[in-house]
């Protein structure tokens, strides 16, 4: 038995056959004949000095040696495939995979991305809307827009975007019905529970404390998705504590208004994140500049808001 590794083609044939538990299906996957695949596995067994498969009647099973070999070979090919795809992406400046939460994708990226597409017709944008933190290498992600506290993450380059705040927002018609903070006692309050993890909380109860109003802020419909809460406010169903990034376009275009001067400034914010060293790759840099330009377009909309830091609101 040699200490040298068998040929890669033999290991690949074994990995496919062990995964499918079928020589025929493995041969189909590898685009070879069953006879050619059997020959490769036999050469691996000769190299190892022991069988890796039990040839049964119209079936196969792994031997003890095959069961010992299969997990490591599968992992090795997965690692090799990941490394190959990552290297290919270094030469691909025409496809940009962006991941962000569903609410940010729906309320910020989707209404604007046609502007980026028009300015960069050579870049094919792809979106993955998920709250799961995708892996840049394994999931083939180029850029992530993440919400949370500013923090250094090993191997990642991060750029904080505009500061984030929340305040009551509503349709212009709703603002006529509820012209003062005191009148909100009679309004339908829409609750966005997507930021309920923040401490201290930045919700209706916190805003009423900021205004010195002893109102019960527990009533009203609740949404786990911020975009759904904003959609309800846009439909005139009530008044929501709107997050800057998710309502600023509607404020800018007049579909929503923020009639009261006070907002709660959050410690958390959105960040533009990519792998360290990738921030200046042409398609990533183009997308970063576009995001910053889009943020700058609407910064003046809420300049008049008096922002009180969340930590400064008494419990």
From TrEMBL:
GO biological process per UniProt: DNA-templated transcription
Pfam family, one: HTH_1
Xref: PROSITE patterns: HTH_LYSR (PS50931)
Gene3D superfamilies: Periplasmic binding protein-like II, Winged helix-like DNA-binding domain superfamily/Winged helix DNA-binding domain
GO terms for MF: DNA-binding transcription factor activity; sequence-specific DNA binding
Keyword Transcription in annotation: yes
Key words, A-Z: DNA-binding, Transcription, Transcription regulation
DNA-binding in keyword set: yes
CDD domains reported for this sequence: PBP2_GcdR_TrpI_HvrB_AmpR_like
Record domain HTH lysR-type: where: 6-63
Family listed: Belongs to the LysR transcriptional regulatory family.
Name of protein: LysR family transcriptional regulator
